[in-house]
Design brief:
Elements: H1 3-21, E1 31-33, E2 38-43, H2 54-62, E3 75-86, H3 88-99, E4 115-122, E5 133-134, H4 137-146, H5 164-179, H6 188-193, H7 196-203, H8 213-227, E6 236-246, H9 247-252, H10 267-278, H11 284-291, E7 299-300, H12 308-312, H13 331-344, E8 349-354, H14 361-380, E9 392-394, E10 404-406, E11 416-420, H15 423-432, H16 449-456, E12 474-476, H17 480-487, H18 510-515, H19 523-625, H20 628-661, H21 666-671, H22 673-737, H23 750-804, H24 809-816, H25 822-827, H26 834-857, H27 859-874, H28 887-896, E13 899-903, H29 907-910, E14 919-924, H30 932-940, E15 942-949, H31 962-972, H32 985-991, E16 995-999, E17 1006-1009, E18 1014-1015, H33 1020-1030, E19 1036-1037, E20 1052-1055, H34 1067-1084, E21 1087-1088, E22 1091-1092, E23 1094-1098, H35 1101-1115, E24 1123-1125, E25 1134-1140, H36 1149-1155, H37 1160-1166, E26 1169-1177, H38 1179-1182, H39 1188-1194, E27 1197-1198
Parallel strand pairs: 7-16, 8-15, 11-13, 11-14, 12-13, 14-15, 18-19, 20-26, 20-27, 23-24, 23-25, 25-26
Antiparallel strand pairs: 1-2, 2-6, 3-4, 3-6, 4-5, 9-10, 16-17, 21-22
Helix pairs in contact: 1-10, 1-31, 5-8, 10-30, 13-14, 14-26, 19-22, 19-23, 19-26, 20-22, 27-28, 30-32, 33-37, 34-35
């Protein structure tokens, strides 16, 4: 555990020790106990001591030889002194005061009978023969009173080595020794408690005397002084119980010491486990159990679509063996068994199963046990010689009866222990398992049945119950008396008196049974038979798994086929849709195209007309500015002017040339320089003229060209005008055709054209996309068609394969839940093939035969180990004498008897000396009735724990008042989950289980471990009420119909108003119930085959007390066991149940705060009735209360009732 978890667990253990220390067992009542022949007296003065009082001496002498023990020896008396008896009402008030708890006036809580401070075993002379036993209660009250408020109370200091208990014991023994009241022949434990000097003195010259009342008072005063607390009142100084024991047992010092019953059965075990937690000596089961928190990751197996159960019941997950039965497990049962097998089979831990009433918890546990047996048999089959499984000798101090051998470790760890807080539940399971009726009528399985028949024989019988059992599969142990009775059958046979009459079926011991011829198969034959049976199962399992895999493959194929067909259909449908869409889009595209073309045409022709008009206007404007005629005239003028200037240029050129020709020569210029100057001057003039004329030509020519261009332009403009006029006329005509005025300029919106263009483009794109999609779906359609074809072929092949295996569609539907309702699914048995089911049963039978053969074959070594275990039980050897521990001896017993049972109360004593995870398998039944601390020690000792119960039936009974537990928890620092008012052992186990479901709503929500769901006990009326008030409709109705008209007719509510009440008892209701029962008994009888035909149940003690008197007056003592409060009836059932409600009308809170506070009480009450339920009560008073409103709605109301029907016949 992590540190936080360790601290929480230790605080819880401290809290639980506090509860148990403050919850002592009561001292015996005064008077005679017919069951044990014990006689109890209150002693008020010295002369009343039973060894001094003549009247008591004579009475005891008269009973001296009437014993419950062996008749081979005379009997004597052993006395138990219960000292300083304390009144529990006074004690409870003091506890309340210290805790600040206020009594609940409406509570049904009643303090127990007086409890003793001290207990001592005395011989018939009145001398102490055993170590005194001190109650832890006074010390615990002292812890309450002496611990300051707001300070954590520590309840760990009383028990343990050198703790207060040891110191008290030492001081008391010292005082008793000094007083001279110790018997010289006291028990070994008493002698060991003395110092060495005292031991020498008591063996030599020890002076003895009878213990006195003053001695007892002094011893008690010493106890109170040492613990630091003194009671306010002692109601009786001494109560002595006289119990007959054989002289031989008395002289051996092994007489049962009942004084250890002063304390809670569990407190020392809690202390033991707390120490183990502190040092980290814990296993997975206890670690998970003590977590007391829901795991973060949980699987709600009822959640929609959750496949946990489906996957958990496949054939490969089933255990190889199962219990022989005509009826296989249904879905939830098989899931739980498989999960236990898978989760715990090769590992360790805890697993819880929620078992509502009538859902087959015992049936489930049988299959769990069968799987364990087969597992161990598989290991056994590995031995060539069973004797080789015993190769290590166990050394036992003082042992003189031959070598004792340890079982090979490979065969250990398979021990199965069934336990419960409910004694009836434990005995029912372990007594039912070996019964012949636990197997099908056709079964021939025998497993040392002569021994199991002998064990089943009535006490004191000389003859076994021949045929009553099939084998010694289980044993109800637990208490010392049960263990002693059982181990009588594990003794060596003694010589018989030849003259005595031998019964037809004499009692047999294991020694005698093993020696009988043919009691078991020869080892090799049994081994071969088992291996063949196992191979057959493995083959059937493989085949069934093949079938499961084939069906799974078929489902995959069918799923894929359906998907492919759907795809194909969808593709075809899509193509059809796309074709229609494409056609529509084609139309829309054409419309958009035409609309766009039309609008574009309008825009075009309008623009063309406007453009032509503008162009024409421009041309006309240009022509108007420079007419053509003017331009032509200008050209003509310029042509004429060019002619003139050209002529002038010619002349000027000629003149210049001429002038140049007449240039004076050198001599002339020399002779007449003036002539030369004149010539030059004229040359210049000629040149200037020539240039001027040339410029005129150029300018005229340029102007002419410009004028000519102008003429060309004007001519071109004229041509353009003509052309434009033509265009304009054509555009005007187009406008007119388009509906526009041909002569008016139009202002059309370009956005409209853009919109039309966009719509046209969109239509084009959509059609293209649709076309592409159509083509793609065409390809998908072809692909889907191909895939469907392939899958159809695969499906055909798979179905043919299943047909070859003779697997029908009905079988497939049942196994896979196809077409089944939730109820039908839960009622179905997963993967049920008769061949497989039969093979699994046969394997269990072969495993049992192998066990028998193994025991016989190894008897030479096994017998001494069993004999040593008996000696241990008888006290002839102690645990300390056995080297390596006593578990080795017990493992030998579990080879022979696979299952033993004990109540939680007997667990610490029966398994004293067993350590962490020393028990292979712990099966807890009715765990909802157990407080969490009751299961703590058992779970610590277990490697694997399977916890079965129902938190919605009876809750744990805590002897402290409810209002004191919460403040006590707070003072101990424990979490609320550890409060036994909030959590049972089942609740803590459920918290540790990640596989389960959530039941209830709001504050009453509960997480429960793997739930069983098919109810097979009650008829529908009771089933429906239970299912509605407690299980959210989770249960499934699986009970056969019963339409017999008998008893008091149909189930009903008999309305008897509570006009007068005595507390919670309504006399008129009790009177009616007594009369009904009287009539019923006369007509039908009270019992059939030893079982009650009718039960009478009430929520209140007042009503039960009145019923007790009324029924006694009607039917006498045979009423015992047929009536009581609800708390006494869990695990019981009868055809008819009367519920007498009672209830004080002046205190309606007694109903709402008790009977109707939770569904549990009503749930248990109604589910005790298999056939009919008759409710007697004030309808108006109860029908509006929670849960009882459902009961009222389910039952017709009657004012009277009449007995009907034929003689009773069990259905």
């Amino acid at each position: 555990m992590k540190q936080e978890a360790t601290t929480a667990a230790l605080n819880a253990a401290n809290f639980w020790m506090g509860i148990e220390c403050l919850s002592p067992n009561a001292a015996p009542k005064t008077g005679k106990d017919a069951a044990t022949n014990a006689i109890t007296y209150d002693i008020k003065c010295e002369t009343e001591m039973p060894w001094l009082d003549l009247e008591k001496i004579n009475l005891l002498s008269a009973h001296e030889n009437k014993t419950t023990g062996s008749t081979d020896f005379n009997n004597t008396w052993r006395f138990t002194a219960y000292c300083s008896l304390l009144s529990m009402p006074i004690v409870i008030e003091e506890i309340r005061a210290h805790l600040g708890a206020v009594p609940n006036a409406l509570s049904e809580y009643r303090p127990g009978n007086p409890a003793a401070t001290l207990g001592m075993s005395l011989d018939r002379r009145g001398m102490v023969v055993d170590v005194p036993f001190i109650s832890s209660m006074p010390w615990a009250i002292g812890q309450l009173s002496n611990t300051p408020k707001n300070t954590k109370i520590d309840f760990t200091g009383f028990f343990g080595l050198n703790a207060l208990q040891d110191k008290l014991t030492s001081a008391i023994v010292d005082l008793l020794f000094r007083r001279g009241v110790l018997a010289k022949d006291g028990s070994p434990a008493l002698i060991d408690a003395l110092s060495a000097e005292m031991q020498e003195q008591i063996a030599a010259d020890y002076t003895q005397r009878t213990i006195t009342l003053q001695d007892i008072n002094d011893v008690c005063a010493l106890v109170f002084e040492m613990i630091g607390w003194h009671p306010t009142e002692i109601i009786s100084a001494l109560r002595i119980q006289a119990k007959p024991v054989s002289v031989k047992v008395d002289q051996s010092g092994n007489a049962s010491n009942d004084t250890d019953l002063l304390n809670s059965f569990y407190v020392e075990d809690i202390h033991l486990v707390a120490n183990a937690i502190e040092r980290g000596d814990t296993g997975a089961a206890l670690n998970d159990y003590m977590t007391a928190q829901l795991p973060d990751e949980r699987v709600d197996i009822r959640a929609p679509h959750d496949q946990t159960v489906t996957q958990g019941v496949v054939p490969r997950k089933m255990p190889l063996g199962c219990w022989p039965s005509q009826h296989p497990l249904v879905l939830a049962q098989q899931f739980a068994v498989n999960t236990i097998h898978q989760k715990l089979g090769t590992g360790s831990g805890i697993f819880s199963v929620n078992g509502p009433p009538g859902t087959g918890k015992t049936t489930l546990l049988r299959d769990v046990m069968a799987s364990i047996i087969v597992d161990r048999a598989s290991t056994m089959a590995t031995y060539d010689d069973p004797l080789s499984a015993f190769h290590t000798e166990i050394k036992i101090e003082g042992w003189k009866h031959g070598k004792v051998w340890a079982v090979d470790p490979q065969l250990c760890g398979k021990s199965i222990v069934v336990t419960s807080a409910n004694n009836g539940a434990v005995e029912n399971i372990t007594k039912e398992l070996p019964a012949r009726k636990a197997l099908p009528a056709s079964s021939t399985l025998e497993y040392f049945s002569a021994l199991s028949d002998s064990i089943a024989a009535d006490f004191g019988a000389k003859e076994r119950k021949h045929g009553a059992t099939w084998g010694v599969f289980s044993a109800a142990l637990g208490s010392k008396s049960n263990r002693t009775a059982f181990f009588k059958h594990f003794s060596q046979p003694v010589g018989k008196n030849a003259a005595s009459t031998v019964p037809a079926h004499p009692l047999r011991t294991l020694w005698e049974v093993v020696a009988e011829e043919g009691v078991a198969l020869p080892w090799q034959e049994a081994k071969t038979a088992f291996e063949q049976a196992r191979q057959r199962v493995e083959q059937e399992q493989r085949h069934t798994q093949q079938i499961a895999d084939a069906i799974a493959t078929l489902h995959i194929i069918v799923t894929q086929l359906n998907a492919a067909q759907t795809t194909k259909i969808n593709c075809i449908q899509k193509q059809v849709q796309l074709t229609a869409k494409r056609d529509q889009q084609c139309v829309r595209l054409q419309d958009a195209k035409l609309a766009h073309q039309k609008l574009a045409r309008l825009h075009f022709v309008s623009q063309e007309r406007d453009k032509a008009a503008e162009q024409l206007q421009h041309i006309q404007t240009a022509l108007a500015a420079d007419p053509v005629d003017t331009a032509v005239s200008t050209v003509a003028m310029l042509e004429e002017s060019l002619h003139d200037v050209s002529e002038n240029l010619r002349r000027s050129e000629l003149l210049l040339h001429s002038h140049l020709q007449g240039k004076p020569g050198l001599f002339g210029r020399l002779l007449n320089w003036k002539l030369s100057a004149e010539w030059a001057k004229n040359l210049t003039l000629a040149q200037q003229d020539y240039k001027t004329c040339g410029d005129d030509v150029i300018r005229t020519r340029t102007g002419l060209k410009a004028a000519q261009r102008m003429v060309e332009q004007r001519q071109k403009l004229l041509a353009e005008r003509d052309e434009t006029q033509h265009k304009y006329a054509a555009a005007a005509n187009s406008c007119q055709n388009a509906g526009l005025d041909p002569f008016e300029k139009h202002r059309l919106d370009p956005a409209q054209l853009l919109l039309a263009k966009t719509q046209y483009q969109t239509a084009t794109d959509s059609l293209a996309h649709t076309q592409l999609e159509w083509e793609q779906h065409g390809q998908l359609t072809e692909t889907a068609k191909d895939k469907v074809g392939v899958l159809l072929q695969q499906e055909k092949r798979q179905r043919l394969l299943l047909q070859d295996w003779h697997i029908t569609d009905t079988m497939i539907s049942t196994w896979c839940g196809e077409g089944l309702s939730e109820d039908q699914l839960q009622l179905a048995s997963p993967w049920l093939r008769q061949e497989y089911f039969t093979a699994r049963q046969d394997l269990f039978c072969a495993a049992m035969n192998l066990h028998a053969s193994f025991i016989v074959a190894s008897w030479q070594k096994l017998k001494n180990t069993l004999l040593a275990l008996r000696f241990l039980n008888d006290g002839k050897i102690t645990a300390g004498n056995v080297d390596g521990g006593i578990v080795q001896l017990w493992e030998a017993l579990f080879l022979v008897v696979p299952v033993v049972s004990t109540t939680f109360a007997s667990f610490p004593r029966m398994f004293k000396g067993w350590g962490r995870e020393s028990i292979g398998w712990l099966l807890i039944d009715e765990a909802g009735q157990a407080t969490p601390q009751q299961a703590m020690g058992a779970i610590w000792r277990a490697r694997r724990a399977v916890v079965v119960g129902d938190p919605l039936q009876l809750e744990p009974i805590v002897t402290l008042p409810t209002e004191a537990l919460e403040p006590l928890r707070l003072r101990c620092g424990a979490r609320s989950a550890y409060n036994p008012n909030n959590s049972s052992a089942q609740v803590l186990a459920d918290m540790a289980n990640p596989i389960g479901t959530m039941l209830g709503t709001d504050d009453l929500q509960k997480w429960v471990g793997s739930p069983l769901r098919v109810h097979r006990r009650c008829l529908h009326t009771m089933f429906a009420v239970s299912n509605a008030i407690a299980y959210d409709g989770m249960m499934v109705y699986g009970t056969a119909k019963d339409e017999r008209d008998m008893w008091f007719g149909e189930s009903c509510w008999i309305n008897v108003p509570a006009r007068e009440a005595q507390g919670n008892c309504v006399p008129a209701q009790v009177e009616l119930a007594a009369n009904m029962i009287s009539d019923f008994v006369k007509q039908y009888g009270l019992k059939t085959n030893g079982e009650f035909n009718l039960y009478v149940i009430t929520p209140f003690r007042d009503t039960n007390a009145a019923l007790d008197k009324a029924l006694y007056s009607k039917i006498g003592g045979q009423k015992k066991g047929m009536h009581g409060t609800v708390h006494t009836f869990q695990g019981k059932e009868a055809d008819v149940v009367l519920i007498v409600l009672g209830g004080d009308p002046k205190k309606p809170g007694s109903i709402s705060s008790f009977a109707a506070a939770k569904p549990n009480l009503l749930n248990v009450a109604v589910t005790r009735a298999k056939k009919r339920i008759y409710v007697i009560g004030d309808h108006a008073q109860w029908a509006n209360h929670h849960y009882f409103d459902s009961l009222a709605a389910a039952l017709p109301v009657k004012s009277d009732i009449v007995l009907i029907g034929p003689e009773y016949v069990d259905a």
